[in-house]
Amino acid sequence: MNSISLKNVSKEYRDFALRDVSFTVPQGSIMGLIGENGAGKTTVLKLVLNMIRADAGRIEVFGLDHIKNEREIKEQIGVVMEESCFYEALRCKEAAAILRNLFKTWDDALFRTYAERFGLPWEKQLKEFSRGMKMKLSIAAALSHRPRLLILDEATSGLDPVVRSEILDVFLDFIQDEEHSILISSHITSDLEKVADYITFLHEGRVVLSENKDKMLYGYGILKCGEKEFARIAPEDVLRCRRSAFGYEVLTADKNAAARKYPDLTLDSAALEDVMLLMIKGETV
Ligand SMILES: Nc1ncnc2c1ncn2[C@@H]1O[C@H](COP(=O)(O)OP(=O)(O)OP(=O)(O)O)[C@@H](O)[C@H]1O
């Protein structure tokens, strides 16, 4: 069962188009959405949340049409967008009072527990909160109506490593329930490397790859070599290549096969960031 499914979704703006986007978020998993600034990540999240309408394609959430069943679906989704949407003069306890009225399933005790876990001051106005505190508040609020699905836009960007790690732990706890799932966009590929089960990589409005993360990280590799050695590499082994002052970097989709075929060349594992950089900046042969 998929929590989210997008099939051939397109959306056109004047200077940008999201084209034929398809991917699924299996129930019980974390899907990380990566891509450069302006790749279309927020647009995808807004489409799933029916904040904007697609020009074409089909979107299902919990197996239901996301427009026809919007109310039922929204009750079961916790959302955190990049900017805090709370009124600055509020305090935590007043935010809780508002949210209690918005969600049938709001759980005051759970919100208190998260506020304590995150060290959020109960009596302070939100305008006195740091960026990290505001983000933690948004996450606590998103979790406290007991959603089945979390949708998060850049929930860890601009935060220090300690706060990020606390937040990632909360996501991993959330996903312990196999009915739960998370769709999270992030620039911080190392965070997604830690928690995501699947990665969808968007580039200029298109899905470049959507894969199981471990398969991708164990499968992809980077061959490093000089001009002469590069000439020996078969084109079918080159997903992308890039020339630098130190020689060639070649992204290959099958690290083990490359190790057997080119035993004399340096072969490194590819981190998510390397894959992203080479897919964007590299060339095909
Ligand atoms: N309402 C809109 N009208 C016109 N263009 C828009 C609108 N919303 C977004 N865009 C354009 O769509 C493109 C994708 O934007 P989007 O916010 O989805 O990217 P992103 O991958 O989330 O980027 P970032 O990482 O910088 O947040 C951008 O070129 C943006 O200018």
Automatic annotation (TrEMBL):
> Which InterPro entries does its entry note?
AAA+_ATPase, ABC_transporter-like_ATP-bd, ABC_Transporter_VariousFunc, P-loop_NTPase
Matches recorded under Pfam families: ABC_tran
Q: Name one GO molecular function term.
A: ATP binding
Q: Which Gene3D superfamilies match?
A: P-loop containing nucleotide triphosphate hydrolases
Q: Which UniProt keywords apply?
A: ATP-binding, Nucleotide-binding, Transport
ABC transporter domain residues? 1-229
Organism superkingdom: Bacteria
**What PROSITE patterns does its record include?**
ABC_TRANSPORTER_2
Residues making up the signal peptide according to the UniProt record: none
Task: Return the PANTHER family for the record.
Answer: ABC TRANSPORTER ATP-BINDING COMPONENT (PTHR42939:SF3), ABC TRANSPORTER ATP-BINDING PROTEIN ALBC-RELATED (PTHR42939)
Annotated protein name in UniProt:
ABC transporter ATP-binding protein
From which organism does this entry originate? Christensenella massiliensis
